[in-house]
Amino acid sequence: MGSGRQRAQSFMILATMLYRASHLTAGALAVAQHQRVLPAQYIGLAVALGLSVLGYGAALRRGWFDPRHIWADVMVTGCALPFLLCTWGGAREPASLEWAMLLGGSASAAASIALERLQALAALALLVAAHLVGYQLVGASTAVVGHVNSVLSSAVMAWVFWWYLRRQGRLLDDANARALGAETHKARYAERLEHHRALHDTVLATLTTLAAGGVDANAPAVRERCAREAAYLRRLIQQTADEVPHREIGAALEEAVGSVESLQLRVTAQYHDLPTVPPQVAAAFADAVREALNNVRRHAGTGHAYLTATHDPDRLGGAVVTVVDRGPGFDPERYVPGLGLRGSVHGRMAQAGGRASVDTAPGEGVRVELRWPA
Known about the structure:
The chain has 374 residues and is α+β, with helices and mostly antiparallel strands. The protein is built from ten helices and five strands, in the order ααααααααβαββαββ.
């Protein structure tokens, strides 16, 4: 669609072209009805039509008027044509000249928007002078005022429309620029938030476990996990941390389970009739499961979690994943969700078009259910 100014230009080209087409149509009807035996009238109409096709055709191709074409239209169609009709076209009365004078109105409209201010005023003055002299030649002084008014009002209205559309175009461009800036800021914030979630679920979880002394830092699985997360941090610093989404939900969940098992959490996993989901959905399931299992390792105190993944019997192509522990549970009304549960579990599922729910009570363990689509 282009910028606001380009849209304004396209509209004004179309509007003035339709205005000229209406005048040419009136001229063709007038010549056909009243001037059948005067070939000069047809020649004059053909000249006006040719200049119109040249000027407006070039404007449609280039996106705006060529001042040379506008001046040619003003001088030939608006000024010279009436005198040629008086001299060789047999125009001796107002009816035989009115259609040519009518073209001066559409010529002034195009000139007022396509030419520089001083040039537009000069073109308008020439058109008014041509109308005054032309009607004097055919003895129609009473019609001069009306046609001069038509020339002037056409120019003024076209210029007002053009000014207004340019102003609205600038406002539209400014609004689009602000919206684009806001979207860019939003995208950057979302990217930072995703990095924060990833750091919380991986590096921070590993460091918290090591600091608590719950695992052997020299164990091969722990060292392998530390190396993997160090590589992730390195990519993040280099701004190349574009993770390739998992293609299958089963593989995504297995990788999440394996990363948490390396920190000595035992996970009993069962998969049944897993559906095919979009890659970003599989990645969201994996990230949410990883954080849910991290919460089991940190808070349940059992060292054991149960994972079940299957299709959603209520939704075709849907998936349901649950993470359950048999720990002490908690009171949901007194518990304020932290970043992990709020952002890494609920937030990730919501972004993928799914939802997460937590079912727990004191002494009853915790059940986290992930469902897609919501």
